[in-house]
Amino acid sequence: MGIDELEPLLEADEIQGNILGGFNKPHQAMLPLYIDGTAAARQWIADLMPDITFLPEVVNFRAALRQHVKLTGAKPVTLNKIWTNIAFSFPGIQKLAQDADQFEPVFKGGLFARSAALGDPTDPASPGNMKNWLFGGPNAVPHMLVIIGADQPDELQDRVTALLASAAAQQIRCPHYDIGHDTSFYPQAGLGKGHEHFGFKDGISQPGVRGRVSANPDVFVTPRPLPPDLDTAPSTPAFSAPGQPLIFPGEFVLGYPRQNETFPRLPKDPASLGADPTRITTQSVGPKWARNGSYLVYRRLRQDVPAFNRFLERQRAALGQLPGFAGLQRDRLGALLVGRWPSGAPLLRAATADNPALGADDGPNNDFSYSDAGSASGGVPAAVADPQGGVCPAAAHIRKVNPRGMGTDQGGPNRTLVRRILRRGIPYGPALPIGTTEDPDKTDRGLLFVSYQVSIRDQFEFLQTNWTNDDSNPTGQLTGQSGFDMIIGQNAVGSRSRFCLLGGGSARIDTDPMRDPEWVVATGGGYFFTPSKSALHDQFAQAVVA
Q1: Which residues 6+ apart lie within 8 Å of 163 measured at CB?
Q2: Reduced to 3 states, what is the DSSP secondary structure of residue 285?
Q3: Distance CA 534, CA 545 (A)
C-alpha cells in the first residue's frame, strides 16, 4: 500500500479543530446551550461560523509553535489564539437537521439514559444521580455545546461574555457554564502544568492519528518525531512517537478507514479509501451529512480531593504493616492506583520513587509496555516487563484504560486499539496543594471531561463499563481478579464499595462506604455530535427543505 492508503488525505477544512488536533489551551470554556427559537438559532449559528476553528488552523499553529521552540529554546511569551467549536445533542439535531434518526442509538438516548449503565448512582438522593445534575438530566438535555479555548484567561472571559450576549439575543439560553484552567493557573497549589486535581500529570498518553492535512506527504495530523519504522510486519502497530500507536482516522472521524483489529498497520476497510466522498464507511453510524464529524462525550466530574487524600493516608498506614509495603508513603500509594507518579513518571520506569526529570520527558515517560521490557537510555531507567501486575497493579487507572501490549478479554493486544478515544478535557475550580485532607470551603472542583470517537457505545462506554467498572477486565484472565479502577471506576452493586489488588495480589485495599465518599461524581454532561463545516452550513445554519 502507498501513502494514500496508509495516510489518507483528510478533508481537513471540513473537520472541527478540537477533534483530531486538540485545542489543548490552558483556559477553556464549556457552554451548554438551549434553543428556544429555531429560526433565531439558525441565524446565531450562521453568525458564529466565521469563528469556528477547523483542523488546518490547529495543525499549522502547532507546527509554528514547535518550530519557534526549536529555534529559540522557549515558547513565545504571549500567545493570543482563541479557538471555538460547536456540537449538537440529538434533541438539538432533531430541531435543526435532517435524518436525525440515522444516528447511533446510544447517542439518541443521551447520556442521562445511560447513567446507571455507566455506574452512576441510582439513589435519587445521591449527588451523582442524573436527576441532580446541573444540566443534562431528564428533560434538561442541552441542544448545543460550545467549546472555547484561549491562551489568556481575560480574553477567554471576554469571548464567553460576548457569545452569551449574542446567544441571548437569539433566544438561546445558558443556565450554567464552566470555565476551566490548567492547574498552573493556581501556583500556590504547586501542582505545575498539565495536572489534574488529585495531583497527577494528565494527558500524557494519546493515540496518534493517521492521515495527512494537505497534499504535502510530510504534513501529518499527528507529528512523527520517530524515524521511519523499518518493521513493516502488518501484525505489529506503527508508532508516531514513543508509546503512541498510529490509529486510522476512522476511529475518531466518520467517513474514513477504520482500524484493522488483526493487522494494525492496515485499514479495516481498504475498499473505502478513495470511495464516494458522501459515503459513510462501514462500521460508522450516521446520516450522509455526518461525514467529517465525530461523536463527543462531555462529563462534568466533581473531584473530592480531601476525601481521596484521606483514603490514601488511612490505607497507607494499614498497608505499611504488611510485608513488602513497609514505609509506604501516600505518594507511592497514589502512584500504585494511577500507574504514574505525580510528575507523570510511569511505575514501570520508576517503581519505588518519583522521578520528575523522567516525568517531564515526553519520550520515555510514555515509552513502555506491560508485556515487554524496554531499554535504558540517556540516564533514563529501563522499563520493566510486568505482565502480572507486580510493579504496576493490573487495576491501576492507566493500565485499565490502555493495556499496552497485553492481551485482554477482547483478544490479542491489537484489538485494544479500536477502543481508544481522543481526550480533550481540562480541570475546573481552584487547585489544592498535594496531600490536602481538609477543605472547609468545600469548593467545587473537578474535570471537564471531553472525548471524541466514532462510537460512543464501543469506545467511551466500553472503557467505562467493561474495563474501569469491572473487577477483572481487561486483563483478569492473565492476572486474576485485579479490582476496580479506583480513580474513575464505579461499582454500581450494593454499597458501591470498590477494591484494588496491589503487589501482584499480595495486598488488597477497599473503600469503606461509611468513611469514603465517592471522590469522582458526575454532576452534568451529555452526548453530542460535532459536525463538519458543510453540515454546519447546510443543516444547521440554513432552513432545511425536506
Answers
A1: 31, 48, 146, 148
A2: coil
A3: 16
